Amino acid sequence: MKNKKKILLVDDEEDFCFFVKGNLENTGEFDVLATTSGKEGIKLVRGEKPDLILLDINMPEMSGGEVAQILSDRAESKEIPIVFLTALVTKDEVENESISNIGGYNYIAKPITTKELVAIIKDILN
Amino acid sequence: MVLKKNIFTIHLMVTIITSYLTIFGHAKDNLIIWSQIFTVFYLSSNLVILYIPTRYFIERTIFYYLIFFHSVMICLGMYLSNSGTDFYLVYFLILGLSSMSISIKYLMLNSFIFVLVYGWILFQKGLFAGDMAVSYALRLPFIIIIALLFGYIVDMLAKDKSRSLKASEEKYRSLVESTDNSVYMVDKDCKYLSANSTLLSEHGLTESQIIGKLFGNFHSIEETKEFIKKVDEVFKTRRATQYEAHSEKSGKWVMRTLSPIKEPDFAKIKAVSVLSTNITARVQTEKELKRTYNTLKITQGQLIQNEKMAALGRLASGLAHQIRNPLEIILMGIDFLGNTLPNKDLNSEKAFEKIKNAVNRTNRIITDFLRFSRKAELKFESVNVCKLLDETINLIEYRINVNKIKIERNYSEESVQVNADKNLLQQVFMNLFNNGIDAMVKGGVTRIKVNTKKIIQVGEKTGYRENDYFKIGDKMVVIEIEDTGKGIPKDVLSQVFEPFFTTKESEKGTGLGLSLAHLIIDRHKGNITVQSEVNKGTKFTLNLQPANN
C-alpha cells in the first residue's frame, strides 16, 4: 500500500477510462485519476501532482498535443513524464497532430493489453 | 463489233453479186458444174466469217486475207462465166473493204494486180479487139483512179483521226504530268508500261530505265508481294481497288488506287493503272492522334485510381482511429473482467482468450491497411530483387510444401538491384505468392522471372512526360510472377486492384492484398499489371525502378 504511484489518465472515452483505471488499480501498484477533458486534466495536475500522465491525442475541445504543450510550459509540471495514447500508428502520423515541436515523448499505440501498459509505465517510472 | 458487222455486210454483198454474175453469166457448157461448185463455196464463206471471233477483226491481217481471197474469187468467177466483163464493178466493193485497212500501199498493189489479171482475162476473151475495145480498155485506168481516190480519202481521215488522238493524248498526258501524285501503268506481271514524271523523280530514274522493268526492282519484297496480290485482284474482279502501303525504304505511306484498263470493244483487261498518293502526313497525324488518345485514356484511368487510393488512405486513417478505440475498450474490459470476476473457471479463461484473439485479428487488418495507406513513410534503399524473392519464398516455404507448389526461377541477372522499401516490397511479393498458392488448389508451378529491360514503348506511366514514372530510353527491372492456377475471369480482371474486391472466401481474403500491392508499387514509381486466362493461370508483371549505382 505504500509508495503507490499516482497516474493521471486523460481520455475522452469514458468507458476506456473506467477499464484502464480499474485494471491499473487492480495491480495494487497505482492510484489512478481519470478525466475525459483536457482542461480538467491540467487542473488535476496542478492539484494532485501525478507521477505520470497518460494522454489521449484525439480529443474534442483540447487535443492531447495542446495539453502537453501547456503542461511542459509550466515549471511545476515540466518534469512529469507524459505518455501519449493514440489509435493512429506511425510516428509521422502522430507528428501531424502538431505536437512534433515538443518532442521526446513516448507513444503507445492502441489497442494494448493491461500487461503491456503496466510494463511500459513501470519502465518509464524507473 | 461494228467493224465485224461492216466487213460481214460487204463480204455478203460481194459474194452474192459475184455468185449471181457467175451463175447467170452464160457459163461454158463444160464449166457449168464448176461454176455451181464455185457459187456454193463462195456463199458458204459467209458462214466462216460469222464464226471468226470478233477480236481478230481488230488486226490488219484479216483485211489482207479477205481482199486477197475476194480478188482471187472474182477472177475465178470471171474466168468461169462466159461474158464476165461486169466483174470489175464488184471490185469497187472490194476497194471499199480494203480501204478499211488504212493501208494505201496495199490497196494500190492489190489494184495493180487485179487490173493486170482483169486485163489478161479481157485479152483472153478477145474483147480488146471488138467494138467495145476502147470502153473495156478504159476500165483498167478507171479502177486504178478509183483505188487512188479511195486510198487518198481514207488516208486523210486516218491522219486526221491520229492528229486529234494525239491532241487528246497530250491533254491527258499533261493532266497526269502536272499532278504531284505518281501515276503509272503496269501489266499482269507488274511490269511498268508507263510512268509519269513524279514517279520518275521519286525513284531518280529516266523513263527508259523504268519502262519494262518489274515493280519488284524498285520496291521491297513485302511491298511487292502486296502489290502483286492487288494487281491480281484487279485482273480477277475487274474492279478498281485501293490500299495503303508503307515503304520501308523511304519511310513513306502511300495510298494506291489500282484501276483496270480494258481494251476497246473487249472485256479483256490489258493493264492496270496505278494512282499513288503520298499520305505520310495523314498517317502520322492519325498515329499521333491514336497515341494521344491512348495516353489520355491511360492518364484518365490513373487519375481515377489515384483519387481512389487517396480516398482509401484518408478512409483508412479515419477508420483505424474509430475502430481502435472501441477495440481498446474491449481489450481493457476483458482484462478487467479477468481480474474481478469471482467464479473463474477454465472455460471463461478460454472465452477471454478467444475474444482477445478476435480483437487482435481485427486490429491486424486495420494495421495492415493503415501501414500501406498514404501517410506511411517509405524507406528507400538498394534492394537485391532476386535475394528478396528467395527470402520471401523461404518465409512461406511451409505453405508451398503443403500445397505441392513447384517454384521455377528464371533470374537473368542475379545481382539486379531496385530502389525500394524492402519490407513493403516483400509484402507485395508475399501477397502475390499467396494469391498464386490460393489459386492452385491442386498444386502447380509458380514461375518467377527477373530481367532488366530498356524502355522503348509508351505505356502506363511510361513515356516522355514529366510525371511519367518510366522514361523512354531508360532501364527498368521487370519481375514476372506467374502461376498455373484457376485464373481470373475476363470480366473481373480489371477489378482485381480495387480495394475490397476478392474472389476468395471471406475468412481467407480481406480484398486488400492486390490493392495494397498496387498502392505500394505505385509509391515506388513502378507499375503492376495482370494477365490471366481461366484454367491456365495468372501472370503479374511488375516494373520497378532500378537502383542508382
Please tell me about this protein's structure.
Chain A is built from five helices and five strands, in the order βαβαβαβαβα. Chain A is α/β, with parallel strands linked by helices and 126 residues long. A five-stranded parallel β-sheet of chain A has the order 2-1-3-4-5, sandwiched between helices. With 549 residues, chain B is an alpha+beta fold. In chain B, strands 2-1-5-4-3 form a five-stranded antiparallel β-sheet, sandwiched between helices. In chain B, strands 7-9-12-14-13 form a five-stranded mixed β-sheet. A two-stranded antiparallel sheet of chain B has the order 6-8. In chain B, a hairpin with a 6-residue loop joins β3 (241-246) and β4. Chain B is rod-shaped and about 170 Å long. In chain B, 26% of the residues are buried. The model of chain B has no long low-confidence stretch (mean pLDDT 83). The A-B interface holds A 13, 15-16, 19-20, 22-23, 26, 58, 87-90, 92-93, 96, 110-115 and B 317, 320-325, 327-333, 335-336, 339-340, 356, 359, 363, 367, 370-371, 375-377.
